[in-house]
């Protein structure tokens, strides 16, 4: 069973940027439907950005134009770059993929200070 581990979260000032990384225990190319999601306190988990089956990218409405998902082949990871961060981006960010079943990482906290 592939396991996913997120890293790169932390505290950032509004207007800043950060890059999250999701490392897989097996090859990330054994995964389909790779994506990033987030959940803020009291809110439902929502899409941040994901790959389609054709490896195009889709971003959530709340982060459109500010989120970029990509693959880092050398690190066997997929990344999420977030720009122009806002306090409302504060959430736990999860990476996910499918390998027979949906797999989730443990999450990494991102806090954006105003």
Describe what you observe in this structure.
The structure is a single chain. The chain has 114 residues and is mostly beta strands. It has no helices and 11 strands.
Short description:
The protein has strands at residues 4-7, 10-13, 18-24, 32-39, 46-51, 57-59, 67-72, 77-82, 91-98, 102-104, 108-113.
The beta-strand count equals: 11
Using only CA atoms, what is the Rg?
Answer: 13 Å
- What is the beta-strand fraction? over 45%
Total number of helical segments? 0
Overall pLDDT: 95
Shape: globular
SS class: mainly beta
Tell me about the largest β-sheet.
7 strands, mixed
Key terms for this structure?
114 residues; mainly beta; seven-stranded mixed β-sheet
Ordered list of secondary-structure elements with their pairings:
Elements (H helix, E strand, L loop, with lengths): L3 E4 L2 E4 L4 E7 L7 E8 L6 E6 L5 E3 L7 E6 L4 E6 L8 E8 L3 E3 L3 E6 L1
């Amino acid at each position: 069973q592939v396991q996913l581990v997120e890293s790169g979260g932390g505290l950032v000032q509004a207007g800043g940027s950060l890059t999250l990384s999701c490392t897989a225990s097996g090859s990330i190319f054994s995964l389909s439907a790779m994506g990033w999601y987030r959940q803020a306190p009291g809110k439902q988990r929502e899409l941040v950005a994901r790959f389609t089956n054709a490896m195009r990218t889709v971003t959530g409405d709340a982060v459109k134009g500010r989120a970029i998902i990509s693959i880092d082949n050398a690190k066997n990871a997929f990344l999420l770059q977030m720009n122009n961060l806002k306090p409302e981006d504060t959430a736990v960010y999860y990476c996910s993929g499918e390998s027979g079943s949906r797999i989730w990482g443990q999450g990494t906290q991102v806090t954006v200070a105003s």
